[in-house]
Write a structure and sequence with these properties.
The protein is of the alpha/beta class and about 575 residues long. It is built from 20 helices and 10 strands. A hairpin with a 2-residue loop joins strand 9 and strand 10. The protein starts with a helix and ends in a 6-residue tail after the last strand.
């Protein structure tokens, strides 16, 4: 579906709104551009004076050496100002990209894993990296150039007007041709770039997912089919990339054509004036060589900002296409368990003693019911096992307690409604271990220390022992300092789970939530870990019903209802 004009206008305003937060950088860029223009005019005047004195006045070369000295100083000044302006513009683009990327990361963190799993890793990577980076030229090139376009032509026309009003009029009349035809050529550029980004996101996600499942694809003899699908996605991406390049080359061709025509008209005017065919334009009825050289030297500089703007117009279309996905994600209306703006979030600064639910319905991020209504009461301390078939909603129920899914009904922690809590503070009191724990691309020690960065060596040794990691670490080439690699490729799934368990043990918490944390461990190791006192309160999602004796409560989730097997007087 194409972007309509109203949406494009809104996105352009959204982009400019981010630039307004850095007005000082934009002003500095405009100021350096103004100074550059003055130096360009001075350079053209010096060159015209030198040619006038050498050709018309027949002065000796030694007499005009001071003019050459001034010219060298101006050239050095231009080089310095260009460098300063590029630094300012790049810093502006970098600041805005950093701000937008931080907003995206904060939004992803707030939505949590329940929402992230709805899309591929490749698609999220494209959004966070490529599409944010494609905003850079809009802020670092296009916006500063927009200000320069309104400064340079006016200054140059003012400089030419005292010497020849006809040349100034020609430049003024031909200048609008460039933006008019650029707009005509650029129509639809945002749509082309948008389709290009979508193709890139699909290809990235598709290729990465197939790469991760390479063993499964080979086992089921689907290699040729998947290769053909990747080839088709690559071809689609190639076609859309060539469409973007076609638009860029077409824009450049239009710019060069009309710029050349405009400069040629100025040159023809002066040529016929020197031949005596034209007798207008000069105030004293004589078109001087100085006026001709001065104007012709400045004519390319007059159109240069417009040509640069045309080149950066592609960056504008690219930024609008990228902003469409970024703005849509940042403004997505997903109900989270956050405190309303007019209320103060409540922090729980006392030990956990109750978790209560009444007619609790767990909702998806799209506000669709997942499981419920459920009513239960948990009185601390507890060691709860939550069992049930796959798809019953066990993990979704835990996602509510983690603050990553919305709900209807009532859910209270220590008598306080959950959506009134300071979610960030509450999450700091929870540890969670999933079926496929994530380990950073660092050492085993670094991964364990994520639970408590300032932990001592004795604390690390204790959790290593409890997590049954001693023998695993002894076999690693560098012990605790062994690099696990990307996606923990140097560890088995069971070893990675033990590292995650050690990490969770190290973090002081009121509540530990475990989602099949020992699924890849042998029975003996699993029993030893289960018997450890990891946290005062634990909720374990499991499919293994052989060791229910280690829990003081067992809940079965069947058809959206809880069935309790409690050894105490807790209600369910």
């Amino acid at each position: 579906m194409s972007l309509d004009k109203k949406r494009q206008t809104y996105l352009l305003g959204w982009l400019k709104q981010h630039a307004k937060m850095h007005k000082a950088d934009l002003r500095a860029s405009a100021l350096t551009g103004f100074a550059l223009t003055l130096l360009v005019i001075m350079q053209a005047a010096l060159l015209a004076v030198i040619l006038q004195k050498l050709i018309i006045e027949q002065q000796h070369f030694v007499d005009i050496l001071p003019y050459f000295g001034s010219l060298i100083i101006i050239l050095l000044g231009r080089a310095l100002l260009v460098y300063v302006r590029e630094k300012i513009n790049f810093a502006l683009g970098k600041k805005v990209r950093k701000q937008i990327r931080n907003n995206l990361i904060n939004q992803l963190e707030a939505y949590g894993p329940a929402y992230l799993n709805q899309s591929t890793t490749g698609a999220w990577s494209t959004l966070l990296i490529e599409q944010v980076d494609n905003l850079h030229n809009f802020f670092a090139r296009y916006l500063p150039q927009m200000r320069l376009v309104s400064i340079v032509p006016i200054l140059i026309c003012i400089a030419i007007l005292p010497f020849n009003w006809a040349a100034a009029a020609i430049l003024l009349c031909t200048a609008p041709l460039i933006p008019i035809f650029m707009i005509l050529v650029g129509m639809g550029a945002a749509d082309i770039n948008r389709r290009h980004f979508k193709a890139l996101a699909y290809l990235s996600g598709h290729f990465l997912d197939r790469l991760k499942g390479l063993n499964t694809i080979r086992l089921f003899n689907q290699g040729e089919k998947q290769a053909n699908e990747i080839a088709q996605a690559s071809e689609d991406f190639r076609v859309k990339t060539m469409q973007v390049l076609k638009m860029a080359f077409l824009s450049s061709a239009v710019l060069e054509f009309f710029t050349s025509i405009s400069i040629a008209i100025v040159a023809v005017y002066f040529g016929f004036s020197y031949l005596g065919e034209f007798n207008f334009g000069s105030y004293n009825a004589t078109v001087t060589l100085f006026a001709g050289f001065f104007t012709l030297i400045l004519a390319p500089e007059y159109f240069q900002p417009l040509r640069d703007l045309g080149t950066y117009y592609h960056a504008k279309a690219e930024a609008i296409a990228a902003a469409d996905n970024i703005e849509a994600f940042l403004s997505k209306d997903i109900l989270l368990n956050q405190v309303s703006d007019d209320a103060n979030p409540i922090q729980i600064n006392q030990p956990l003693h109750t978790i209560e639910a009444s007619n609790l319905i767990v909702l998806s991020s799209e506000q669709q019911p997942i499981v419920g209504p459920l009513s239960f009461t948990l009185q601390a301390p507890f060691k709860l096992a939550l069992i049930g078939k796959s798809g019953e909603g066990k993990t979704s129920l835990m996602q509510v307690l983690l603050g990553f899914l919305p709900y209807q009904g009532s859910l209270k922690i220590n008598g306080i409604e959950f959506n009134q809590l300071d979610i960030t503070h509450w999450q700091q009191q929870i540890s969670w271990i999933g079926q496929n724990p994530y380990l950073i691309n660092g050492s085993v020690r670094e991964n364990i220390l994520l639970g408590k960065p300032d932990a001592s060596d004795d604390e690390i040794d204790t959790v290593i022992t409890k997590a049954q990691l001693i023998h695993v670490i002894d076999k690693l080439p560098q012990g605790l300092d062994t690099q696990v690699g990307e996606d923990a490729v140097r560890l088995s799934v069971g070893q990675a789970q033990r590292v995650a368990i050690a990490r969770a043990m190290l973090k002081p918490c009121q509540l530990l939530i475990l989602d099949e944390p020992t699924a890849s461990l042998d029975r003996h190791t699993m029993q030893n870990i289960d018997q450890q006192h990891i946290a005062p309160n634990t909720i374990t999602i499991t499919h293994q019903t052989d060791d229910m004796h280690i829990y003081n409560q067992v809940w079965r989730l069947v058809d959206g209802h809880l069935h309790c097997d409690s050894k105490e007087d807790d209600l369910c």
